[in-house]
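Ligand: glutamic acid. Inputs:
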Amino acid sequence: MEHYLDSVFDHVRTLNPGEDVFHQAVHEVLDSLGPVLERHPEYREARIVERLIEPERQVIFRVPWVDDAGEVQVNRGYRIEFNSALGPYKGGLRFHPSVNISIIKFLGFEQIFKNALTRQGIGGGKGGSNFDPRGKSDAEVMRFCQSFMTELYRHIGEYTDVPAGDIGVGGREIGYLFGQYKRLTNRYEAGVLTGKGLGWGGSLVRTEATGYGTVLFAESMMATRGEAFDGQRVAVSGAGNVAIYAIEKAQQLGATVVSFSDSSGYVVDEDGVDVDLLRQVKEIERGRVSDYVDRKPSAELVTDGSVWDVPCTVALPCATQNELDEAAAKTLIDNGVKVIAEGANMPCTPAAVELFQEAECLFGPGKAANAGGVATSALEMEQNASREQWPFERTEDKLTLIMKNIHDECAETAEEYGDPGNYVLGANIAGFRRVANAMLDQGII
Ligand code: GLU
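Predicted complex:
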């Protein structure tokens, strides 16, 4: 089996040269699949793995727009429609200067398994652009979003492909994107995008969902060892949507969160993070983490080293891919970390994950631990389809149950495959099985 999976991986590398993070994401899944392919020869006969690693459709397009100075700008747009065995393609849009085909394919690939774990009937996709919203005026962001949607609209739809936010895409961008979709199609098709404003089709809890869900997943992992968040010292990286609401939920559960970060450095606040101030600085003022430090005497800005130098018992990487490497994992373990849950997509390098597992830490991989965001997007689609808006508590209860079910399914699958406590194995196999069975039923397509 190892030989077969190695040859599939070689094929991925040859066919997609230079796409390092995509290779990494594929490798991480293939690494778990040996035992499930042994048990299910029918998956191999139907070439499930070979079909899974090939996106169903990839769209790359030009996005021209005019900046406030009247200059023409050109960006590149992407939408990778990876797998629709379980439902319409679903996944966010990332606007960040680093965006390239490899990043969008890695995110789309992860999304297939993440979405399968939610059991909500959503396929996997992802998109975005190398556009950098930072420092742009609202009018520039609007013109960019309108141009982006002028191409994207022909590829998406409530039953086809449903984008949402990711890094650089929040409520403001979704609003402009939806407006242009509506104008182009002459349809108020609420379920075509998620993360909408609460006054026009959005779901309560969607804003909080990814961060809250990550903490709920970590809480379930901790419960297997009779532990809880109360009294824990938590380090968080990032200062965006996922980080802010992970901090809020961890503190609601009695933990002290002592750090967050952005590309300008990291902040240590021994008194515990003031999440309202952080939200004000990052979400309302669109400022930097240093603006928080200017207003909070107990906080200190550190511009060298790594946020993972901050001693903690629970680490929640909520920034971006490969932000926590082997050296950082070693420091965290030496400092007594017990639990790591990935709020971002693939923030820990493979070597870091291996160290955490060797040290018998509880490790929750992103495709399980951060599935709360997309799960609540699916709840938003459900509300749009029935023209309802559920109260906050009802929606949060549903999110809590979904996260618990994902945790339990990952834990049970890891046990079934002889490696209890290995949530990476559990998540990969449980997600893969659900997609593979649907693909078998639907024939060779
Ligand atoms: N971008 C988020 C993720 O990585 C959410 C996607 C969605 O809501 O569709 O899962």
